[in-house]
Amino acid sequence: MFHIFQYQPLRLITQNSLSSMCLKLMLSRPVAFAQIRKSWFSSHSLLGKKNIILMGPPGAGKTMTGKIVGQKLDCPVIDVDDDVLETTWNMSVSEKLQDVGYEEFLEEEGKALLKLSASGSVISLSGSNPMHSAGMQHIKRNGIVVYLDVPTTVIMSRLKSKEMDRIVGLSPGVSLKDILQFRKQFYKRWFDIRVLCGGDVAAEVVAEKVIDAVKRYQDSELETFVSTRSSRSGRSMEQDSHKLYFSDVVTQGLALDGGLFVPERGLPKFTAEEWQGLIEVTYIERAQVILERCIHPADIPASKLAEIIETAYGENFSCSKVAPVRHLVGNQFLLELFHGPTASFKDFALQLVPHLFAYCIPRSCNYLILVATSGDTGSAVLDGFSRLHDADKQRIALVNFFPEDGVSPIQKSQMIGCQKENAWSVGVKSDFDFCQTAIKQIFTNSDFTGFLTVEYGTALAAANSINWARLLPQIVYHASAYLDLVHQGIISFGSPVDICIPTGNFGNMLAAFYAKMMGIPIRKCICASNENNVLTDFIKTGVYDLRERKLISSFSPAVDILKSSNLERYLHLIANEDGQLVTQLFNQLENQGHFQLRKDLLGKLQQDLVAGWCSDEDCLAAIHSVYSTTGYILDTHTAVAKVVADRLQDRTCPIIISSTAHYSKFAPAILRALRIAEINQNPLSQLHLLSSYSALPPIHWGLLETLKKTGNGDHQVCAADMSVLMSHIETLIQNHFM
């Protein structure tokens, strides 16, 4: 019999194989698992003895959709209102509601649902069924609950036109909108699958979407991941049998061949109607809808994902809009990504990813997360993992490597101040590129990783933007920014926008491009670099050349990067997933310091991307100019993007500039831009001086509190030597886990 929680036991097989990996060697899942999974799904029909249970507000179209789904699947159809309630009561639903009142009606309705026994059927619930817990628990035991998610404005319009008189809870002083909003919490509690239904979508189309969604729910075989350095034509049958799923790539981080994980069949696409259905909802709701499509429920069920998203964004961000869009000047808008606890865009991923990671990993294995940062990632990842539950902190620890002299004083103070019992910062006497390359080499050193698993029962994982899970939350805020412009009446849906992003490791830019692929009408993706402008040169010429290049320390240290890791994912995409070509290019970069794209690939790249760069002097001048004219202070990275946007935009459409960090993090440079003659070297004093300007936005609350607590905190410093780094890692494992 197909049980509702069928996927949890299947995923436990994955976790057991991963536990075995931790206790022995870092091996991929057994061939047997994929065979079990494949044979199980192929031997069952879409329904079997399970029910498809349609849930949603009154007016969502459950009855008509249910009839069409039943016809297509040739199975019985049960409408709870007509076939259960009215049959049981021998009166209409509206008469019953008038007879017993709101609260008694819900109880009587729940009792009737408890008596329903069906299998292999399509069941259309009433709009108020989900408010009765016992009834829903009963019906869900043998069913897949599909939530028909229709925008509230559409529902209100439909109900008004039908003049419905049997809305449970409707009374003088209680509006229909309030009732619909109140009920959402119950729908979100019970559903397994969400189907977005726009205003003008025909019931036939909704029925097809329901069937497709149920097929996806039942079979996660299609949502596997591959390395950017593997090729479909070159993969053996044995490799195909070792399938990797979302929970695997979150845990593993980097592919064993040195490549980066990408979804084998690409990202999901949203229709224009589906995107438009998200215009009126909150950021948290947008995040849940988008991430549900990107993460299979076999990996993380929708209810758990909702809990994780609420934890990440519910109280940890100082702005209720989470990622607000603010008009700057002319047709330029700022996407403010600094309202999280550590004041940078990294918080969007790193408030979420630790909880995803903790859910996906097996309970029987310890994990040490390795992170390399050029500044903002460090404090964000330390803060994120420090918010895990105590039980998770005991089995998950983190070490953050950063260039000791390559971050701002405030960034360093943050990283020291954010250290917790399971999270530490280590300064390295080198630059970010060394830190990032060292971590990649450690992950691909099977002797070292094998030693750690056998000797200490500890596996290594990555939380840098090379981890696939880091990219998904960034897709959300780029999509949300566009929807906000539509909601504000700046544009109508379908009108194009340009995006300009200060770019170092290419993850933020890649996420914007992914949002475009998923249906957001982004026209140009503009990469903004500082004087470390290797990406600018590459986008213009197709030549990625690190020869004769030395990293230049700038006022925008988060983009002081020469090797852009996530560029590999983009090149894999435009090269039609030719893993052999990607391997060749990046091996050449590693061994010879350069590579050149073929002409056809350069043409594709230049259709998607344009690029420019900005000097430190122009960066500071932009900060001063914007403050003088608007009273708004840009951080140094956003100023780089502003300068490049001014140069490259054609002003035929709005441009959204990603404001990736709060200016408070770079106080010395900001004070210099504002032409303050004497600058106190104490970071806390610098923030107090900035706060006296009463500028927009105000000083970041979380940063100020962290610096007050930091004092003269300690951190470890080590030489730029692989053996020294590995020794540090082993010592930290011994101290925390043993």
UniProtKB/TrEMBL annotation:
Q: Residues in domain Threonine synthase N-terminal?
A: 239-313
Instruction: List the GO biological process terms.
Output: amino acid biosynthetic process
Q: Fetch the InterPro entries from UniProt.
A: P-loop_NTPase (IPR027417), Ser/Thr_deHydtase_PyrdxlP-BS (IPR000634), Shikimate/glucono_kinase (IPR031322), Shikimate_kinase/TSH1 (IPR000623), Thr_synth_N (IPR029144), Thr_synth_N_sf (IPR037158), Thr_synthase-like (IPR004450), TrpB-like_PALP_sf (IPR036052)
Q: Does the keyword Amino-acid biosynthesis apply?
A: yes
Q: What are the names of the required cofactors? A: pyridoxal 5'-phosphate
Please give the GO cellular component terms listed in this UniProt entry: cytoplasm
Q: Which residues carry this modification: N6-(pyridoxal phosphate)lysine?
A: K346
Q: Which pathway is it part of?
A: Amino-acid biosynthesis
Q: GO MF annotations for this entry?
A: pyridoxal phosphate binding
User: Which family is it part of?
Assistant: Belongs to the threonine synthase family.
| Protein known as | THNS1 protein
Taxonomic lineage is:
Eukaryota, Metazoa, Chordata, Craniata, Vertebrata
